[in-house]
Design brief:
Length: 412
Amino acid sequence: MIDDNKQELILIRITGEDRPGLTSSFTAILAKYGVTILDIGQADIHNTLSLGILFQAEEKFAGFIMKELLFKATSLNVAVRFYPVTKDEYRDWVGLQGKNRYILTVMGRKLSAKQISAVTQIISDQGLNIDAIRRLTGRIPLDENKENTRACIEFSVRGTPNNRPAMQSDLLKLTSELEMDYSFQLDNMYRRMRRLICFDMDSTLIETEVIDELAIRAGVGDQVKAITARAMRGEIDFKESFTERVALLKGLDVSVMKEIAENLPITEGVERLMFVLKKYGYKVAILSGGFTYFGNYLKQRFGFDYVYANDLEIKDDKLTGRYCGQIVDGPRKAELLKLIAQVENVDIAQTIAVGDGVNDLPMLGEAGLGIAFHAKPKVVANAEQSINTIGLDGVLYFLGFKDSYLEEEGML
């Protein structure tokens, strides 16, 4: 039995140009002396290696180990540094195990030092420590004019925020000042096992409000658009506004609906997002204050599993200005989210909701992860996550997907 008092704890840090076999070369030396690896981490940034190993070795071998490691580093043209670690320091480090861990995701069309500096200052001010940083997006092109460019990095942080509401407020402020998006999530098993995602349709999956498109064909576009805008901002009751708007569509020929559906402006990133979600087995729903006809069109095109929206009453191939059944408003969306989760045997913490209007807030609040997408100011202010700078496929980064994984699967 090894005497713990005759053991040394040593941290080594190896840096230099990365190439195959470096890690193997150094761990082979450690293996020769039968050391115990207590912690190990490696990162590669632009072909530059940073490798850290904390190990426990018998005191009588420590000098020989360091000498061999130093010779190996010299022969491989990399740098190695040694740091003794006391047993008390190690016990303190072990004691941190189980403390809260969070994932802070930051993204935009591009990311600057100013943005990263501001975000990391907030992390520091909240008493959190950054354990790891990784880039989720592919290698960023220098051509800033390239379409659909995006940059995303993920911070793994440990600790408990000193003031989480203040932290959320500070991050929210940065989104408008520095043109970036963020997500701050507890890093638990639910974050890694999301199974159900529910989307609003109008101004989320599509870049328009269908009722406005119908109104334009009916010659009442300005009237309906004004009512829609007030409803989405939360200035008037959704049910009341919905009834008023539908009444103005009376007499419109149903053939118009097919023409609108076939020309819907699909939001950037929807096709990529849906391909990935379906590939990895997510259940996907549309919960919309819009109309079932258009939701079913998107269902057929992209493979949504559920569509809940509103049905327009039709007689003699004309809209009557009335609707059928229960209105899908804010509270109803939240109810449907919970209902689908029960049907699919999914914990509510494994659900995601994405929307832009005030009537989406109940389901955003109910879901395990609520995301405001290119949303109205009131929605952004009340949602813990938001996307305003890139397309809807930005949701994938909040779920931890890396572009490199998707490239391997032929999804990019």
